[in-house]
Amino acid sequence: MVTDGQEDPPYDQVGGMSFSLDSKRKGYVAWKGNKRFIVVDGKELDQYDAAYLPVFSPDSKRLAYVAKRTEKFFLIDDGKEGKPYDEIQLFTLSGNAGGLLSRSRIRKKFIEGATGSAGTALIYWGGPIFSPDSSRLAFVAKSGDKWHLVVDGKEGPYDEIFAVSFSPDCKRVAYAALLDSYSGKCCIVLDDIEGPQFEELYRSERNYVMFDSSESLHYIARKGKALYLIEETIK
User: Fold this and answer.
1) Does 201 have pLDDT greater than 60?
2) Is the overall model pTM greater than 0.85, yes or no?
3) CB 42 within 8 Å of CB 24
4) Per the count of CB atoms within 10 A, which of 38, 48, 97, 152 is most buried?
């Protein structure tokens, strides 16, 4: 890895580089043999079977990333390894119309989209997410057959979870949840409280729910043939 003409030590392979927002820190994935690890500020972190794109907090002080050992995934926050999960979400997808779909339906659309028969899917980063003030860290993980939003040590199980958002004051957290993969029923969850159920949610500006302020949010949803603009005041 070469930055501004300065070479880092050589590795078998490097990739997945990111800079902190203040441009003073750099992190990337490196390979030695069959092991992968994060290099940050010139320091090699613990080795794993796989390691993925490092993410800096908005204040540039914290670093989080996902790693894999044998068949388990871990979230590493400032060098501290969290509990093991069967999977940790790294990407989130939507259909070509922006609607929330189950992973199986998304994959079908994406594959068919390559032949031009069903449009294409959009892929967004869905890994670790810091709150704007850098004090909170959220990620989506799977245990057994259920997905959980993990934030502040609390987990809420759903069939699928998409697009986590923090409010501007960082006190609230909202996300889109698929309640039933078979029926496609979904809702917006705010602070562990489920909103009304709909048949589809629509993505706007890379998210399904938009905070207008720390006291209000909105999103777009479909039930039957009707589209709804849902505006909520948070008490």
Assistant:
1) yes
2) no
3) no
4) 38
